[in-house]
Amino acid sequence: MANKKKELEAQKQEMTPSDETERTRECSCFVPRSDIYETDDNVVVVVDMPGGEEDNIDITLEKNILTINGYANLETPDGYSLIFAEYELGDYERSFRLSNQIDRDGIEATYKNGTLRLMLPKTAIAKTRKISVTTG
Fold first, then answer.
1. pTM of the predicted structure, to 2 decimals
2. Is the domain 27-74+86-121 a CATH 2.60.40.790 member?
3. pLDDT tens for residues 100-132?
4. Burial class (CB in 10 A: 0-12, 13-18, 19+), 94
5. What is the spatial distance between Cα 50 and Cα 89, in angstroms, rounded to a whole number?
6. Would you list the domain boundaries of the chain?
7. DSSP assignment, residue 122?
8. pLDDT at residue 1 above 60?
9. Residue 83, pLDDT score
10. For 14-35, b where at least 16 C-beta lie within 10 A, e where not — what string?
11. Could you count the other beta carbons within 10 Å of the beta carbon of residue 2?
12. From CA 46, how far away is CA 32, in angstroms rounded?
């Protein structure tokens, strides 16, 4: 279903070394995969960030750009040694451009089991409303 209103526009970017930015950590940097859902009242962004922790995630909003930065730590339980891993250690970075239809003061973020969930509430103007019809 194509939605003509875009409350959130993902900025496509690849994390590769460039002349424009310098990385301070020598590790891989990943663009985490995301799903974006819309309800009548919110836009919900679900971001896969395996190996992360709440304290290792930084979310900023500046000039309509919502940026997610984080890093993953691989912890091996005591008495075990890792023999196979399907994801690498590294940093996560992803940015989204927000429209004026998002209430910036109401944004909430939760992290659980490797998934970051952002609730972006719509402004009153952007919410779907029912218009009643009267006779006359």
1. 0.72
2. yes
3. 899 999 999 999 988 999 999 998 887 777 778
4. buried
5. 9
6. 27-74+86-121
7. B
8. no
9. 86
10. ebeeeeeeeeeeeeebbbbebe
11. 3
12. 10
